[in-house]
Amino acid sequence: MTNINLYTKKLRESGLRPTKQRLKICEVLFSSEKTFHFTINDLTKIIEEKLSEKISLATVYNTIHAFKKKGYLKEISINSDKSYFDTNITDHQHFFDEDKSQLIDCGDDEIDSVNVKRNITGKKIKSIEVLIRVASDNQNQN
User: Fold this and answer.
1) pLDDT band for position 108 (50/70/90)?
2) Sign of CA dihedral 129, 93, 37, 5
3) DSSP per residue over 52-77, as a string?
4) Looking at the chain, which terminus has fewer C-beta neighbours within 10 angstroms, N or C?
5) What CATH number has the domain spanning 3-85?
6) What pTM does this model have?
7) How many angstroms separate the CA atoms of 96 and 113, rounded?
């Protein structure tokens, strides 16, 4: 299946019409072999820089949220007004560098499994996601 066909399929499965702009969004999100993290504003800038394409923030926002709802992207909420999206949808943990505002994958070999001691009656754990916040140690800097 060609990339355009794959992108068209993802868009349609997400309930979106495969417009030229949405296909460009797919090109940036899904053509790289390496997964990456981004905010919606970051992605808008990447599209403009890489593809010399101007796409409205609303189109990017709606496309990203449709992909997230379908399971093609993962959302990592940093706080109430800042979210990153991840093209790696497998269960994994993250560091958040507060100095650089950067989300970094934390591999399975870098963290022991989380032991949950409490359960909610009638519920089962769907996934466990750990966000480890890091910042410069200002005490050691003069």
Assistant:
1) confident
2) negative
3) -----HHHHHHHHHHHHHHTSSEEEE
4) C
5) 1.10.10.10
6) 0.87
7) 19
